[in-house]
Write a structure and sequence with these properties.
Elements (H helix, E strand, L loop, with lengths): L8 E11 L1 H14 E17 L4 H7 L4 E10 L7 E10 L2 E10 H10 L8 H12 L4 E15 L2 E15 L12 E2 L6 E7 L5 H9 L9 H22 L3
Antiparallel strand pairs: 1-5, 1-9, 2-3, 2-6, 3-4, 4-5, 6-7, 7-8, 7-9
Length: about 250
């Protein structure tokens, strides 16, 4: 993994599906025959999602606009301060996803994103990230989200990927990626989020298999659901507080 050059630009369609354990096992059986593990294989994905204090970006996202965008900091595995990390700007226009990212040590990424320090190296992508941040001047970490991911490339077309995410975990405090994965689940423990990342159409054999298994597309935003869960918790807390005085 360390010897591979990380991809920095992506343009694709992303289709999401929520699977039961039974559905997952059947799909995974066929995936194992036709796909190969990607450069990260099985790993824990750790993210910090940045937003304004009013949650402007995530609120826009859950309204399902034609265009939406987000900024996050990602590591593969629970990092140390000097582990490789990626600052990513992810945009979606209609059904197409565009992702631009730069890789740098975690401590340097934090210095840049949270302390406003200058990057050691500049590029077209870093300039785009800086411009994004200038548009939302009050950006700061607002959600931690992690998952245990298995990722695969299609043997017949390396532009097609499939990922399976388990243990989707979130928190809206303690924004330190080195602290590891803890918090609350976004999905029940026996549910798996499958994402198919494609340049155009899902392979016919896979589409037929999902139809046979009753697997249908799902609109599922990790950070969007984390935000909704947070609002529900706050509402419940407010109700409990009020009930004490009734």
């Amino acid at each position: 993994m360390m010897g591979l050059k990380a991809k920095t630009t992506f343009r694709r369609l992303e289709k999401k599906f929520i699977l039961t354990e039974e559905q997952f096992l059947r799909v995974k059986e066929e995936v194992d025959k036709r796909f190969v593990p990607d450069e990260y294989g099985e790993t824990k994905i750790c993210n910090l999602y940045f937003d304004t204090p009013s949650y402007l970006l995530v609120r826009r996202s859950i309204e399902r606009p034609v265009f939406k965008e987000k900024l996050r900091l990602r590591t593969y595995g629970v990092p140390t301060e000097t582990s490789q990390s990626f600052i990513e700007v992810k945009r979606k226009y209609k059904s197409e996803v565009y992702k631009r990212r730069i890789g740098l040590p975690l401590n340097e990424a934090i210095d840049f994103l949270e302390k406003g320090k200058e990057l050691k190296e500049h590029s077209q992508i870093s300039n785009e990230i800086e411009y994004f941040m200038s548009m939302y001047e009050t950006l700061k970490p607002m959600f931690y989200i992690s998952c245990d991911r298995s990722a695969f490339f299609y043997k017949d077309n390396m532009n097609i990927r499939v990922t399976f995410d388990r243990n989707l975990t979130w928190r809206n405090y303690d924004f330190d990626l080195t602290k590891g994965s803890y918090g609350e689940l976004l999905l029940p423990a026996d549910m798996i989020l499958m994402e198919i990342k494609i340049p155009d159409a899902i392979p016919l054999w896979l589409a037929k298999l999902m139809s046979e298994l009753g697997i249908v597309g799902a609109s599922f935003s990790k950070v969007g659901n984390a935000y909704i869960n947070m609002i529900k918790q706050r509402s419940l807390s407010d109700e409990q507080t009020v009930s004490k005085y009734i």
